[in-house]
């Protein structure tokens, strides 16, 4: 255990977050996501919901402020304008925790999968709500950040 570090952040996940560079992507995925097939690096956090993992990650990792879409989710198949409740929760977490507050952008399912395959890592959660997946782009940690 460490002081000031959310206990959800396992040693493996902390190592991945530390190793990521500016512009690298990390996927926080639900329990249905094909993480084993897509991930170059995989961390499993079974039993923990995705918004809790998002909050923990954003407590130590900045969102990229050099791009228009540092937070991406998957559109509902056949209902591209609908926003799933879990994505509404993601936005609330970003609004409350992120140092670079950003509006979530939803992309088509296979576009999301293509981006996920290129991600630095995937964190598979125990999230059971459908469409509980988000890709985050890491920002710069400035010399003045604690």
Automatic annotation (TrEMBL):
This protein's UniProt keywords: Isomerase
Segments passing through the bilayer: none
Catalytically driven reaction(s): beta-D-ribopyranose = beta-D-ribofuranose; alpha-L-fucose = beta-L-fucose
Pfam annotation, one family: RbsD_FucU
GO BP, sorted A to Z: fucose metabolic process
GO molecular function terms listed in the Swiss-Prot or TrEMBL record: D-ribose pyranase activity; fucose binding; L-fucose mutarotase activity
The protein's name in its UniProt record: L-fucose mutarotase
Species classification: Bacteria, Pseudomonadati, Pseudomonadota, Alphaproteobacteria, Hyphomicrobiales
């Amino acid at each position: 255990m460490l002081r000031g570090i959310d206990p959800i952040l396992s040693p493996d996940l902390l190592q991945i977050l530390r190793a990521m560079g500016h512009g690298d992507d990390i996927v926080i995925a639900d329990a249905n996501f094909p993480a084993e097939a897509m991930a170059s690096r995989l961390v499993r956090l079974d039993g923990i919901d995705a918004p809790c993992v998002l909050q923990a990650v954003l407590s130590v990792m900045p969102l990229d402020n050099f791009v228009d879409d540092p937070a991406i989710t998957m559109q509902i198949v056949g209902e591209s304008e609908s926003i799933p409740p879990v994505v509404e929760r993601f936005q609330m977490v970003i609004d409350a925790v992120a140092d670079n507050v950003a509006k979530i952008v939803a992309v088509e399912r296979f576009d999301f999968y293509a981006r996920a395959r290129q991600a630095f890592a995937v964190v598979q959660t125990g999230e059971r709500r459908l469409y509980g997946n988000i890709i985050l782009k890491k920002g710069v940690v400035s010399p003045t950040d604690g």
